[in-house]
């Protein structure tokens, strides 16, 4: 292939991928020459070839533009709901790479306008985002008098005070000086892991575990060792003790309250036992408590932090699951690692934007956060009951489910012959998403499991989608 032909193929591929849209101006001859390191003569030959193929058209004194007909012809065919074929994303989803599978699932929800049983996010329509945006807009109008030093770690003092006050109201007094504001709980978890471990270290996790934990371990070049986890009692403490006896563990990452995907609330006695085991070996515990406010019982449950006497628990939480996901306001209570985590926060992202921090603080101070939470908990509790009943009704004999005590996800074990990746693909072809079980482990132990999200409004379409999902699973048995 000649040089100008190669350049023409690259430009055609750019149009096919949507880099250049219909009617849009492509690179000028001079820009293309500079970017591709070829002569202007080569570019002119390439553009003449594109023009002869009907992909671009020349407009005097304006340049070259993508022809509408060419853009339509080159665009990939959109998946048609109801067709019995796997979508384009399916080959990516079938890979063992957890992060790619998660990304593929999230893209599918967005691209296909699918029923979001596979979404990791709560229904945003339940959040008071309009009210919080009003606070943010009012703060933005006062920008001229804003004190930007509040951006620096540990974060906005009023937000920190409101978070500490929230803990105190729920029977867990904390030192405001320990709190570090982060960009959501994900950053809090990543910073905590960086603070206590280094690349090559081994980190103990639940099995199954929330994939964000695995992402953090993978990103930092560490190794995960999975510990069996009971669907009601949490991580097997005896099994963890055996792991600790056999090898060096740098940290233990767990979700004691409403774990994703199992939904359990770890009993207080076992929380205390876990903290004591880790403390005896000087092993830090990274506690992901993002669902702390979404309990179905009468009171917010205790945390590992409640039983920490040595500063070894790094407690991570956020408002993303209970108040607003768009502002990504999280925090950490890192115990003895507070100075290190604050330094890492500064080195990693420098600041957390001020306006979202103050807007959330204003809402916590002036509006009915508890009233909002009572409504959300009631909705989730009702919808968990509905989904559980319908899975029992529509899914194949032998299907088993978790019994969530909070949060908004249901863990479903299908009969052994059902492959959740095949089910994922078949469901997506019908505009339904699920969370395949292999996303929640580095092993292949959960291939016949799926996670379902019940936070979104329960409608006739939702019920029909769940029935279709059950029919697909029955066919696979």
UniProtKB/TrEMBL annotation:
<dbReference type="InterPro" id="IPR036390">
    <property type="entry name" value="WH_DNA-bd_sf"/>
</dbReference>
<dbReference type="GO" id="GO:0003700">
    <property type="term" value="F:DNA-binding transcription factor activity"/>
</dbReference>
<protein>
    <submittedName>
        <fullName>Histidinol-phosphate aminotransferase</fullName>
        <ecNumber>2.6.1.9</ecNumber>
    </submittedName>
</protein>
<feature type="domain" description="HTH gntR-type">
    <location>
        <begin position="1"/>
        <end position="69"/>
    </location>
</feature>
<keyword id="KW-0804">Transcription</keyword>
<dbReference type="InterPro" id="IPR015422">
    <property type="entry name" value="PyrdxlP-dep_Trfase_small"/>
</dbReference>
<dbReference type="Pfam" id="PF00155">
    <property type="entry name" value="Aminotran_1_2"/>
</dbReference>
<keyword id="KW-0238">DNA-binding</keyword>
<comment type="similarity">
    <text>In the C-terminal section; belongs to the class-I pyridoxal-phosphate-dependent aminotransferase family.</text>
</comment>
<dbReference type="InterPro" id="IPR015424">
    <property type="entry name" value="PyrdxlP-dep_Trfase"/>
</dbReference>
<dbReference type="InterPro" id="IPR036388">
    <property type="entry name" value="WH-like_DNA-bd_sf"/>
</dbReference>
<dbReference type="GO" id="GO:0004400">
    <property type="term" value="F:histidinol-phosphate transaminase activity"/>
</dbReference>
<keyword id="KW-0663">Pyridoxal phosphate</keyword>
<keyword id="KW-0032">Aminotransferase</keyword>
<dbReference type="GO" id="GO:0003677">
    <property type="term" value="F:DNA binding"/>
</dbReference>
<dbReference type="InterPro" id="IPR000524">
    <property type="entry name" value="Tscrpt_reg_HTH_GntR"/>
</dbReference>
<dbReference type="InterPro" id="IPR015421">
    <property type="entry name" value="PyrdxlP-dep_Trfase_major"/>
</dbReference>
<keyword id="KW-0805">Transcription regulation</keyword>
<dbReference type="InterPro" id="IPR004839">
    <property type="entry name" value="Aminotransferase_I/II_large"/>
</dbReference>
<dbReference type="InterPro" id="IPR051446">
    <property type="entry name" value="HTH_trans_reg/aminotransferase"/>
</dbReference>
<dbReference type="Pfam" id="PF00392">
    <property type="entry name" value="GntR"/>
</dbReference>
<keyword id="KW-0808">Transferase</keyword>
<dbReference type="GO" id="GO:0030170">
    <property type="term" value="F:pyridoxal phosphate binding"/>
</dbReference>
């Amino acid at each position: 292939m000649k040089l100008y032909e190669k350049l023409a193929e690259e430009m055609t591929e750019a149009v096919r991928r949507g880099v250049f849209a219909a009617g849009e101006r492509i690179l000028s001859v001079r820009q293309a020459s500079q970017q591709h390191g070829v002569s202007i003569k080569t570019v002119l030959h390439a553009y003449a070839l594109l023009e002869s193929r009907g992909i671009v058209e020349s407009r005097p004194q304006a340049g070259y533009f993508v022809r509408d007909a060419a853009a339509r012809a080159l665009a990939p065919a959109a998946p048609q709901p109801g067709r019995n074929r796997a979508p384009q994303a399916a080959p990516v989803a079938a890979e063992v790479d957890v992060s790619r599978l998660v990304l593929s699932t999230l893209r599918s929800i967005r691209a296909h306008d699918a029923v979001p049983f596979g979404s990791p996010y709560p229904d945003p329509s339940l959040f008071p985002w309009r009210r919080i945006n009003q606070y943010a807009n009012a703060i933005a109008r006062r920008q001229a008098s804003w004190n930007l030093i509040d951006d620096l770690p540990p974060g906005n003092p009023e937000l920190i005070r409101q978070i500490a006050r929230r803990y105190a109201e729920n029977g867990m007094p904390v030192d405001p000086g320990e709190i570090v504001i982060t960009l959501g709980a994900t950053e809090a978890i990543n910073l905590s892991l960086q603070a206590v471990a280094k690349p090559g270290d081994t980190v103990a996790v639940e099995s199954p575990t929330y994939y964000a934990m695995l992402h953090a371990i993978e990103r930092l070049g560490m190794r995960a060792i999975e510990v069996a986890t009971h669907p009601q009692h949490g991580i097997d403490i005896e099994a963890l003790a055996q792991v600790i006896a056999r090898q060096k563990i740098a940290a233990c990452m767990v979700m004691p309250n409403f774990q994703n995907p199992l939904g359990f609330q770890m009993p207080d006695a076992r929380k205390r036992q876990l903290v004591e085991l880790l403390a005896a070996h000087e092993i830090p515990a990274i506690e992901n408590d993002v669902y702390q406010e979404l309990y179905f019982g009468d009171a917010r449950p205790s945390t590992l932090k409640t039983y920490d006497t040595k500063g070894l628990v790094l407690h991570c939480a956020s408002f993303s699951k209970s108040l607003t996901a768009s502002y990504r306001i999280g925090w950490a209570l890192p115990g003895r690692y507070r100075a290190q985590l604050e330094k890492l926060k500064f080195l990693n992202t420098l600041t957390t934007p001020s306006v979202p921090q103050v807007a959330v603080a204003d809402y916590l101070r002036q509006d009915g956060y508890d009233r909002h939470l009572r409504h959300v908990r009631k909705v989730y509790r009702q919808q968990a009951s509905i989904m559980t009943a319908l899975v029992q009704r529509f899914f194949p004999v032998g299907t088993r489910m978790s019994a969530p005590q909070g949060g908004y996800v249901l863990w479903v074990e299908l009969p052994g012959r059902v492959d959740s990746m095949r089910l994922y693909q078949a469901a997506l072809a019908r505009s339904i998403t699920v969370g395949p079980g292999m996303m929640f482990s580095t092993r292949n132990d959960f291939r016949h499991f799926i996670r379902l999200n019940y936070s979104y409004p329960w409608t006739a379409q939702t019920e029909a989608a769940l029935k279709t999902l059950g029919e697909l699973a029955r066919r696979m048995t």
